Amino acid sequence: TYSTALNAFKDNHSQFLKFWNEMKGDGIEPNLITYNIALNSFKDDHRRFRHFWTEMKEKKIEPDFVSHMEFLDYLEKSYCILAGKKYFSEYIVKLKIGKDGELDCHNLSHGGAVLQLLVYLDDNADKNEIEIISGQGSDYAMRDYILAGIKEHGWDYAFDYVHPDDSDNSGRILLKRKM
């Protein structure tokens, strides 16, 4: 199928575009799945990302959770933070808060997780401690991305990162207010 071929070449833009154009030339219209693959493929090529996003919206293909996460990544990586926080609040709506009050980033994209934290901080900047669960995995890429986002967006002036004492999970982040 074309979606399999597109996914196989998502890191090779020229091959991806060749299959995309071939698919359209054969009269097969892109669907939500193929647009999600395109958005993921061109997440670092902002001009093409915007092209696929606009085309998808013009065809009235409604984004799903994957599409929303790709768009949040795009907004955060494009430094469109206010737009990203607004989009998060409108389309994701609810912050993911765990049973113990921690901010939960499971199933969010990197940009989605940082934007969720920034939305959370808008309403909770006065807290002395904020615990974040960065997500699953053993490479801690999400944790590192969130920590970099804290610094990049200026919150390192207010909080220090401390590894939680009661956790052997390096994916947990504990932010403590600087005194």
Descriptive report:
Helices cover 53% and strands 9% of the residues. With 179 residues, the chain is an alpha+beta fold. A 4-stranded mixed β-sheet has the order 1-2-4-3, with no helix packed on it. α5 runs antiparallel to α6. It is elongated, with a radius of gyration of 18 Å. The protein starts with a helix and ends with a strand.
How would you summarize this macromolecular structure in one to three sentences?
With 179 residues, the chain is α+β, with helices and mostly antiparallel strands. The protein is 53% helix and 9% strand.
List the helices and strands and how they pair.
Elements: H1 2-8, H2 13-25, H3 32-41, H4 46-58, H5 65-77, H6 81-92, E1 103-104, H7 110-124, E2 129-133, H8 141-152, E3 159-162, E4 172-177
Helix pairs in contact: 1-2, 1-3, 3-4, 3-5, 5-6, 5-7, 6-7, 7-8
Number of strands: 4
Order of helices and strands: HHHHHHEHEHEE
Percent range for helical residues?
40-55%
Please state the structural category: alpha+beta
For the termini, the CA-CA separation is 58 Å
Average pLDDT figure: 90
Please mark out the parts with pLDDT under 50 across 5 or more consecutive residues, or reply none: none
**What gross morphology would you assign?**
elongated
Q: What radius of gyration results from the CA coordinates?
A: 18 Å
Residue fraction in strands: 5-15%
Largest sheet: 4 strands, mixed
Q: Give the spatial strand order of the biggest sheet.
A: 1-2-4-3
Helix tally equals 8
